[in-house]
Amino acid sequence: MRTAAWLYLILAFGFIYLPVGALVLFSFQDGTLPVPPFNGPSLKWYAEVLSDGDVTDALLHSLLVATGSSAVAVLLGFLAAYGLARHVLPGSAVMRVMLIAPLTVSYLIVGLGLLIVLNRIGVGLSLMTAGIGHVVINLPLAFAIIYASMGAQHENAERAARDLGASEAKVVILVTAPMLAPAIAAAFFLSVTLSWDEFIIAFLLTRFDITLPVEIWSMLRSGLSPRLNAIGSVVFLISVTAVLLLEFTVLRRRRS
């Protein structure tokens, strides 16, 4: 039984990580095509990518959009979670459903809807509009994570702070937010991870200043190249780094 479990685990991990392993391996290919046989290792494609101004600009744009939109999404999600968890509002159940519902909507539908609205009101496409789109898709996730973490112990601490004379703003900033810091950080890192490599909304809502996934798509039109593998490896490394930071700085501390 244990052997079968280990075999299943190895097959599952192989199925998940084999494509990523092939991507990283052939990013070190010395030839011009990322296909067997492997010739290398060589770092020339990484050097070429890092010296490409278009790629580095797109990389910085992706980081800017990911961190900025995630910060806004987490702030709005925290305020919405606090309001619905701590105050009795008419139709609060419907509000919760409406806040979480965008998680079930295709990114393509969200992007097309935003594109129509932005064109109608005359807003030009830019990194800002891409950030707005990422706020729309990350806000429900941030709200769900933070709202699920707001327990009775937090409410008791808030009530004690009010009894001691703290204003509502001080209660939120000095009591509620610090107690929810692990959930807030988890929502932020997950939002950054999702926004960082999101393509459809970034493609629809940007024009001249593009993000890294859009740059990769434009490069794919000229065929496969180890340069694409190198860029994909960098994207994968940054995504894994964000997840590891979440694990070691937030989730592990929360469990302990």
UniProtKB/TrEMBL annotation:
Record field: transmembrane: 7-28, 58-85, 97-118, 124-150, 171-196, 230-251
GO CC annotations, alphabetized: plasma membrane
Keyword Transport on entry: yes
Keywords: Cell membrane, Membrane, Transmembrane, Transmembrane helix, Transport
Tree of life domain: Bacteria
Compartments, record wording: Cell membrane
GO biological process: transmembrane transport
InterPro entries found in the cross-reference section: Bact_Polyamine_Transport, MetI-like
Keyword Iron carried by entry: no
Similarity annotation: Belongs to the binding-protein-dependent transport system permease family. CysTW subfamily.
PANTHER family found in the cross-reference section: PUTRESCINE TRANSPORT SYSTEM PERMEASE PROTEIN POTI
Protein name: ABC transporter permease
